[in-house]
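Entry 14: structure prediction run for ethanolamine kinase. Input pasted below.
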Amino acid sequence: MGSEGRAWNGAAGSSGHGGGGGGVEAKAITAALSAAEVPRMAVSVDISLPLPEMSPDIIYLCKQLVIGWCKIDSSRFSIETVSGGITNLLLKVSVKEDDGNESAVTVRLYGPNTDLVIDRKRELKAIPYLSAAGFGAQLLGIFGNGVVQSFIYARTLSPADMRDPKIAAEIAKELHKFHQVDIPGSKQPQLWNDIFKFLKKAAALKFEDNEQQKRYEKISFREIQDEVQELKDLLDTMHAPVVYAHNDLLSGNLMLNDLEGKLYFIDFEYGSYSYRGYDIANHFNEYAGLDCDYNLYPDKDAQYNFFRNYLRPDRPSEAQAQDMEVLYVETNTFRLASHIYWALWALIQAKVSPIDFDYLGYFFLRYGEYKKQREPCFSLAQSFLSKPRNV
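Run finished. Output tokens:
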């Protein structure tokens, strides 16, 4: 997650971002590459090392995986940290050309134990298709615990940027396009599979630290399982559209080139086929920012501004009004699923993450917000479902 975290002090997040990945030359290099043609190496880089010790391995990888770089002298390379988050470390690797110009790529190193919460095969399968559709950085190469991508010259958005009505409108239009991308394979939504998988792992943890264990033992996983099942049953009755969803559209995964007015979505680690309303709701939850101020969740007017730009504007006004009402109810019910998902995610991180952060506290924060919003969201959905509707 973003700039740089999925937590109130910025220490935790789904991923570290900032620079995205790739210059014009690198994009041209990979424009014609299919998923099968992307270079691969089995070697891994020790992400626990400080950058100076890591640099020779990074340079070697780039020489092998970036077309045209294999014969460039190592002295021409420079490496800087773009950002570091919970699930990856993002590096900008630059080389000086003979003409004095600079080319750059991004090296993304996966953090330890991230396979417990991220399906890397699913991510790597999707990236080439998303790149071909114009989303994110181009994939240049894959290695044991990371990827090399093109470098995006743009700034990372802030939560305040996301709340700006003009930028929100552009995010909505881009998200509509993103949801049209066809990723080969099963189109079955993965949200509930992922949540139940997280729940099973979270319920089987044991902490060495006594204080952590005491806090953990206060959690009723039977209650959470019942809540998840009831929420799933309710949402299943809505028959929400299934799309290829980003599932982590926080500010750190949104970049903007102000000169070109170009908006970028980056980091598709959590991408999967899921529900339209979930992806939008998860994005709205991220209005809370690093301080997790959920009072910043958009009001109905702000949501409708987003929906008008997401939905087809050429629909008759009455039909468009109905579409927006459906999306409003759908989104604000899936809001609950987002809190459950990241609460369980945090519990797993509490056990396996090397980051010094109170993930247990984050669990209680997200689950507490779920319980706070449960009654109004359930009531909204049940009221909507009880109304007779034109078919």
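Notes: The two ends are 40 Å apart (CA to CA). Will compare against the previous run tomorrow.
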